[in-house]
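Quick question, first post here. What does this chain look like in 3D?
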Amino acid sequence: LLLPGLYLSPRTTTTSTTAPRNNERKASREIKNINSGARRVVTLLGKDISQISARKWYHFLAVGLFTPAIVLSPAFTSFAFVLAFVLFLCIETIRLSRLYPTAKPLQAFLTQLLDHREKGLLIVSHIYLLLGCALPVILTLLLDRDSYPICAPLSGVISLGIGDSFASIVGSNYGGKILTRFQGGGKSLEGTLACLFSMVLFGWSLETYLES
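> Answer (accepted):
Ran it through. Tokens below.
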């Protein structure tokens, strides 16, 4: 997920600020500026798109990477998820410790797509995405190794990679009727319906293909 992500890594345009005196205050201020809620436009694959749409490219990337692996070898994929989780924790430790020379490029790469929901010094969006995709696979294998629905281990990939992505893209661009507000953002009717129908359509199509 990290290696293709380097190719898709967007370029952002932000307003520069005066650097604080120490590194910890600098990291805190950088995340605080991102959390301000200002609309940001990023350049991805040569096109200017909204930040929230750029974030969902990584969700679609997860679908393309994880779905074949989970279908073909869920046990090995679970092991790979555990290794990736440990790797992400090491990366976050390196970033927070300001370990030269890797901390600075990690800080630049991981902070460029943060939004107002990221608070504090920790950056955990990519870890949450990994855990959301991994836990259904691991739990499915632990609870029932012999028989389970085809889409059971893929429920995390479907909900996060497909449902959440379509809900966010459709809701942010076409959402008009706000159903509820959460963490400074709104959940629209259009986004909710897009989430529901996209998950049902993808799950049905995948199950039909695998059973044929």
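The two ends are 29 Å apart (CA to CA).
The chain is about 65% helix and 10% strand.
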